[in-house]
Amino acid sequence: MPRVILAGMAARRFTGGLTEFEVEANTVRRMITELDRRFPGLGNQIDEGMAVAIDGEIYQDAYQAQLNPDSEIVLIPKIGGG
Amino acid sequence: MSFLDKAALKIVGTRPIRPDGVDKVTGRANFGADMVMPGMLWGRIKRSPHAHARILGIKFEKALALPGVKAVTCGADFPEVTPERAHVGAAPANLRDLSRNVIARGKVLYEGHAVAAVAATSQAIAEQALDLIEVEYEVLPHVMDIEAAMADGAPLLHDDIFTAGVEPKPTKPSNVSKVVRFAIGDVEAGFREADIVIERRYTTKPVHQGYIEPHACLVSVAADGQCTIFSSSQGQFMVRAYTSRIVGADIADIRAIPAEIGGGFGGKTIVYLEPLAYMLSKKSGRPVKMVMSREEVFRATGPAPGAIVEVKLGAKKDGHITAAQSILKYQAGAFQGSPVQQGCICGLAVYDFPNALTIGYDVLCNRPKVAAYRAPGAPIGSFGVESCMDELADALNIEPLKLREINGAKDGTKATHGVTWVNIGYQKTLEAARASEHLKAPLGPNQGRGIASGYWHNAGGESSAACHVNEDGTITVTEGHPDIGGSRASMAMMVAEVLGVPFENVRPVVGDTTSIGFSASTGGSRVTFAGGMAVTQAAQKVVEVLKQRAAVIWDISPDAVEWKDGKAYPAGPNAGAFEPLDLATIGNRAARTGGPISAEVQINAQGQGPGFATHICDVEVDRETGFVKILRYTAIQDVGRAIHPSYVEGQMQGGVTQGIGWALNEEYIYDKDGCLENPGFLDYRIPVASDMPMIDTIMVEVPNPRHPFGARGVGEVPLVPPMAAVANAIFAATGLRLRDLPMSPPKIRAAVDAEEPPRLAAE
Question: Which among B10, B60, B224, B564 counts the fewest CB atoms within 10 Å?
Answer without folding.
Answer: B224
